[in-house]
Amino acid sequence: MTPKIEWFQEILEQEPSSRVFFPLAKLLFESGDVTKALETLRHGLEHHPDFLEARLFLIHLLYSIGDMEGCSSESILIANLFNQYPDFWAAWGQSGAQVGGDFGLYMGLISALVLYPDLTLKEFLSYGLKGLSERKSTEFSHYSNTKQSFASLQTSSQSSGIVQSSNDIVDIEEVGDSEELFFDRPEDMAVVSKSKDDSFPVCTRSMAEVLAEQGDIVSAIKIYQELESQATNHEEIVSLHARKVELSEMLAQARNASSFSSSTTNSYNINHQAEVIAMLEALVTRLEKRAKG
To answer: InterPro entries given for it (predicted)?
Structure first.
């Protein structure tokens, strides 16, 4: 047993609720005493049930010794916790997508299954395959049309020796009536074109909601302000203003919560430092008495 292990054990004897149980359990595991490490972890988690890393380490140890029943019961606790925060998986997936590979896709799948418990993996794959098939069909259609147009143009040019005029290549009025020629998918056109029924781009309000969901409430409010200033329909103005006010209230609450959390954390740190100092003084006194005895 190393002096560091003995020192941590002395601290736990003085203060059973101390968080040093976690580094102590890791040292015990590294020294080969898995049983004692498990005992230390379980005792510490009774005082600190929200200590996530300690519980993950407990699951790791249980799995390593083949205790599947204990591993399952502990895993369920963490699974229930993560199920309450499905956006965690989405955020993790986005960070993974920046690196590349399929990691972001896997996390996105988990997020979707957590958000929509009734969604089966079969349905998820079916939707994806359907979308892929539709996109491939659209791309093939555009390719075929372009190829046929080029072939007709080439035949006409060869028969006359020259291209008659620019109108033989493209009819400007036809292009104006068929904007989809410039886009691979219909949804791409919705980003830059205006709806015939609405005064603004279809995606703008949706973009504001996406930003709000991701926590960028300030940018979402700016979008709603712009939409409200350009709106001409009274009902639309009222709707946009109401949502802007709602987001402003959410932003104020978030800032107040952040301020309160900061002051609470500072108070906790001061009290915690005082407790640690008192505990160490008691430990030193105890060790001195033991040395004299």
So the answer is: TPR-like_helical_dom_sf, TPR_rpt
- Residue 269: its pLDDT value, please? 56
pTM above 0.85, yes or no: no
Contacts (Cβ under 8 Å, ≥6 apart) of 8: 20, 21, 23, 24, 27
Instruction: Copy the structure tokens of residue 257.
Output: 């919560």
Quick check: 51 and 42 in contact, CB under 8 A?
no
% helix / strand / coil in the chain, to the nearest 5? 80, 0, 20
State both tokens at 119: 């969604």
Three-state secondary structure string covering 24-47 = HHHHHHHCCCHHHHHHHHHHHHHH
Over residues 204-219, the pLDDT tens digits come to 677 777 677 767 788 8
Distance between CA atoms of 149 and 174, rounded to whole angstroms?
14
Contact 27, 9 (CB under 8 A): no
For the record, the structure tokens of 28 come out as 């015990």
Number of helices (H) and strands (E) in the chain: give both, helices first.
13, 0
- Cα dist. 241→184, 197, 226, 233, 244 in Å? 35, 20, 11, 12, 5
Q: Which residue(s) pair with 201 in the sheet? A: 194
CA distance 54 to 18: 13
Query: Which pairs with CB-CB distance under 8 Å and at least 24 residues apart come from 52-61?
Result: 52/78, 52/81, 53/22, 54/21, 54/22, 54/25, 57/22, 57/25, 57/26, 61/29, 61/34, 61/37
Nearest to 5 by CA among 37, 45, 38: 37
What is the tens place of the pLDDT at every residue in 62-114? 999 999 999 999 999 888 888 888 788 777 777 766 666 677 677 777 777 77
